[in-house]
């Protein structure tokens, strides 16, 4: 089963993906996580991507398409995968369709998590992420047991550089201008499922699994 998780920054794609991994046994492929890992390693690709990420702009298509193409052919993707944060614009979606046709694969479900903008800003500025395991928290909505420390692995929690109010505003604009057109794109393919992303995380998980079966 191949799934795309669509939705604005802060909608809960990463949060739900972590839960879906356990239920369906398929990996999460987050282009944002892959770019941050490249940056942490200091690779040329990571340093190039940082220029765009710091502004809240999209990294060039060729970069992310290359990453995804390589990743989906790895062994752990044989039974399927969840794409989180990719595709981000129509050109990426078209490249993905082409790539999957060549590989004899297809997308089965596009789950679009919908949350109003005013709630997204608070979710993003309060988000904390584990440096070691990538686990997600929120200072108010999902706090760790001990401040600054990951419940799962004891790693240090940090605030992403792009989760400040100014960059968040740009990211939300980029979403509505460049990513939102994908809703139409996948609706036309008959794959789109809209999920109300407001409510507690468990309820939203149930709404998603009701679609995926
Ligand atoms: P969020 O989950 O908050 O939406 P991501 O981790 O997906 O954030 O993305 C962070 C940043 O990484 C984006 O603002 C963008 O600069 C870059 N990025 C991630 N995925 C893509 C992509 N598919 N295409 C272009 N840029 C991307
Ligand atoms: P995305 O991957 O779509 O950018 P995340 O899953 O990282 O979003 O969630 C963004 C922030 O909002 C995180 O701090 C997370 O703990 C919090 N969050 C996720 N789902 C909910 C929810 N249903 N209600 C309140 N906060 C949430
Ligand atoms: Zn951790």
Set down the secondary structure blueprint.
Elements: E1 2-6, H1 13-24, E2 28-30, H2 31-41, H3 44-55, H4 61-71, E3 81-84, H5 90-103, E4 109-114, H6 117-125, E5 127-130, E6 136-138, E7 157-158, H7 165-179, H8 181-188, E8 192-196, H9 201-212
Parallel strand pairs: 1-3, 1-4, 2-3, 4-8
Antiparallel strand pairs: 5-6, 5-7
Helix pairs in contact: 1-9, 2-3, 6-7
Bound molecules: adenosine-5'-diphosphate (2 copies) and zinc ion.
Give a brief description.
With 213 residues, the chain is α/β, with parallel strands linked by helices. Helices cover 49% and strands 15% of the residues. It is globular, with a radius of gyration of 16 Å.
Report the sheet with the most strands, covering strand number, pairing sense and barrel closure: 5 strands, parallel
Which ligands appear in the coordinates? adenosine-5'-diphosphate, zinc ion
Chain-averaged pLDDT: 97
CATH hierarchy: architecture of the domain at 2-26 and 79-116 and 170-212: 3-Layer(aba) Sandwich
Provide the CATH superfamily of the domain at 2-26 and 79-116 and 170-212: P-loop containing nucleotide triphosphate hydrolases
Which ranges are low-confidence, i.e. pLDDT below 50, for 5 or more consecutive residues?
none
Number of helices: 9
CATH topology of the domain at 2-26 and 79-116 and 170-212: Rossmann fold
């Amino acid at each position: 089963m191949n799934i795309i998780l669509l939705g604005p920054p802060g909608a809960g794609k990463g949060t739900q993906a972590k839960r879906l991994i356990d239920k369906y046994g398929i990996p999460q492929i987050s282009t944002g996580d892959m770019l941050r890992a490249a940056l942490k390693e200091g690779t040329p690709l990571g340093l190039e991507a940082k220029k765009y990420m710091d502004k809240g702009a999209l990294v060039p298509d060729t970069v992310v398409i290359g990453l995804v193409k390589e990743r989906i052919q790895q062994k752990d993707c044989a039974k399927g995968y969840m794409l989180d944060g990719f595709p981000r614009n129509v050109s990426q979606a078209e490249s993905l369709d082409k790539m999957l046709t060549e590989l004899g694969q297809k997308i089965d479900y596009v789950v679009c998590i919908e949350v109003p903008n005013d709630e997204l800003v608070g979710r993003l500025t309060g988000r904390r992420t584990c440096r070691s395991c990538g686990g997600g928290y929120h200072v108010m909505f999902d706090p760790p047991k001990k401040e600054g420390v990951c419940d799962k692995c004891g790693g240090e929690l940090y605030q992403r550089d792009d989760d400040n109010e100014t960059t968040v505003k740009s990211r939300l604009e980029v979403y509505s201008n460049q990513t939102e057109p994908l809703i139409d794109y996948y609706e036309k393919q008959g794959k789109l499922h809209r999920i109300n992303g407001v409510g507690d995380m468990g309820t939203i998980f149930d709404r998603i699994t009701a679609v995926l079966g």
